[in-house]
Each structure stands twice: as C-alpha cells, then as structure tokens.
Amino acid sequence: MADNVRFSSEEISTFCSQIAMILNGGIPIYEGVHILAEQMEPGKTKKILDQIDSEVKDGKEFHAALADSGAFPEYMCEMVKVGEMTGKIEDIMRNLANFYERESHVKASIRSVIGYPTVLFAMMAVIIVVLVTQIIPMFRDIFLELDAGGSDSALQAGINAGTVIAIIVLAILAVIIFMLIWYRTPGGNKALTNLAYNSRLSGKLADKISTGKFVSAFAVMNAGGMENLEALENSRKVVENKNTLLKVDKCIEEVKGEKKLDDAMIDSGILTRLQGKMLGVASVSGNTDEVLYKISDQYDEEVNARLSSLSSVIETTLIVILSIAVGAILVSIMTPLISAIASIS
To answer: What pLDDT, on the 0 to 100 scale, is given for residue 173?
Structure first.
C-alpha cells in the first residue's frame, strides 16, 4: 500500500474519466495506466500509479491492483471487477466518473455551508476581542479622567461581560478550528462524517444525501449488468446514514421475497411513489439506469436547495448573535459613560 494515501472524490472522478477515454481510444488498460503514471509529476499520486502500473504489467487484474494501492474505495474496486467480468469496463469507468463527480459536488456544497459561517464567526471573534482589549480600556481611561465614582461598578460589569463573551467566542472558534484540522486526518474524517450522517440535527439532510448516493451507486451497477439483488447489496456499501441503511435493508429483504424492485423501493421509503412508478415503467422499456440517474439528480437538486437554505439560516443567526453581543458590550459601557457626563454637566 502506497503511504495510506486516499484519493479524493474529485481525483477518483478524474482518474475514471481518463481511463474511460483511454479505453475508448482502443488503448489497453496496462498501457493506459503506464501513460497516466508517466505524465504525472513526482509525488504520492505518481507512486500509487506506478505501483498499479507495475502490478498490472505483472499480470494482476486491474481491480485487484486498485484495491492493493489502498487509494480507492471498496465500492469502486468492486465495480471495476464487475466491468472486467462483463466486458463493460469502459462504460463502468465512465459511470464511476459521473458518480464520484456527483459526490465531489455534494462535498463541495457541504464545505461551502461550513466554510463561510466559520470565517464569519472568526470575524466576530476578532471584533469582540478588539472591543475587550482596545476599546474598553480606552473608555476606562475616560472614566478615570472624569472621576465618575459610582459608574465604575457599571463599567466593570461591562468589562466583565465583554471578557466572558470574548472567552466563549474564542473557545468555540478554537473547537471549530480543531475539528477542521482533525477532519483532515483519516480517523477524524471518519468520526466526524459518521457524526454528521447520524446526528439528529443533520439526520434528515444526511438521509437525503445518502439516499441520492445509494440510488446513483445502484444506477452504476445496473448499467454494468449486475442483477438487482446483488446491485442492492453492493450499493449498500456506500451508505453512511443509519436511517438510509434501514431502508436499504428493508428493500433488500423485500426483493429477496420476490417483490418487484420498484415496489420494494417505494415500500422501503427509498423512492417516492412517483419515482417508483417511473422506475417501473423504465424497467419494462429497458431504461432503468437512465431513470435512476435522473432520480439521483433530483436528490442532488433537493440536497443543494436544503444546503443553501441551511447556509442562509446559519449566516443570519451568526450576524444576529454578533450584533447582540457587540451591542450588549457597547451599551454596558456607554450607559455609565453617559450618566457620568450628565452628572458633570
């Protein structure tokens, strides 16, 4: 295994797309992988491709070489194996490119939802820290010059309130930064992804994301010529949300009980009744994979709409919190100052 490197969804999509183009041009796999490895700049990615190139040249099957590298997910390796067995490797690679491109877009949308509010929260922390460390001391000097007497306790209360708010904000920011750094490690990525996919707060959105991912994976397997039951069981591997897993397991059990695929998907809650009927008609006309791709696109659109709405809610909430926090600090300082000036007048 080459340094335990895992390719991102975007990198996997690009790799699959390049292999599909190579195969479409009539170039065999072993030569195509060699071409990709040769044109890659020195680094971890080149080491992985060189390893795959070497193993394929030694006679190992392409899917086995991919699995040995440790850089590709199990689902992809299984699909490549299906492609090699059925002779549809080019179609499989093209469909996998689309699958991982879709996954990359979903992850980018999630990063956008997290990224902008994090920057906004950091700005809020900076503003509050400046208030506490720069603005409040300036007002304290003014109070001392005015010799405001009784207003000193009110000023101190404002200083204490501002300090507490600043500490809380900085602590939250530190936790956010820690989690973002931890997310970049394999263990942290797995733990935080599992938390996000199975927490009550993000459960419904995670269910939609997982369902769309499952349908897209099933479409790839269906296009590869895999039987429905086997395709369902293999597509289950890409699901990370517990609620979605329950639906998939129910669907698998019903298909084992010889229920029609569209009815099983409707009864399990994977598809709506309209989507299920579309799938039923498509299965008769031989366009099952096309309809499944359309359904997964529908899930993508719904997920993007929800993420956009969630982003707006988070941004608005942070702005309101910032306004209240800064306003509270300023009022706690300005009130005794105004009283002092009035008493002197």
So the answer is: 77
| Helix boundaries (H) for 131-227 | 136-146, 151-183, 186-198, 203-223
With b for 16 or more beta-carbon neighbours within 10 A and e for fewer, the 20-49 pattern comes to: bebbeeeeebbebbbebbeeeeeeebbbbb
Task: Give the pLDDT band (50/70/90) at residue 115.
Answer: confident
Q: Record the pTM.
A: 0.67
**Contact by Cβ (8 Å): 208, 306:** yes
Residues 6 or more apart whose Cβ sits within 8 Å of residue 306: 205, 208
Counted residue by residue, the chain has a size of 345
Maximal C-alpha separation, the chain? 95
Would the pLDDT of 333 be above 70?
Answer: no
Helix axes 203-223, 288-344, angle to 10 degrees: 160
167 vs 165: CA distance, rounded Å? 5
Short-list 262, 229, 268, 238, CA closest to 250 = 268
Residue by residue, what is the 3-state secondary structure of 77-139? HHHHHHHHHHCCHHHHHHHHHHHHHHHHHHHHHHHHHHHHHHHHHHHHHHHHHHHHHHHHHHH
Residues 6 or more apart whose CB falls under 8 angstroms from that of 302 comprise: 208, 212
For residues 108-137, average pLDDT: 77
* Contact assessment for residue 222 and residue 236, using Cβ atoms and an 8 Å cutoff: no
Q: What is the 3-state secondary structure (H, E, C) of 27-39?
A: CCHHHHHHHHHHH
Nearest to 224 by CA among 36, 75, 118: 75
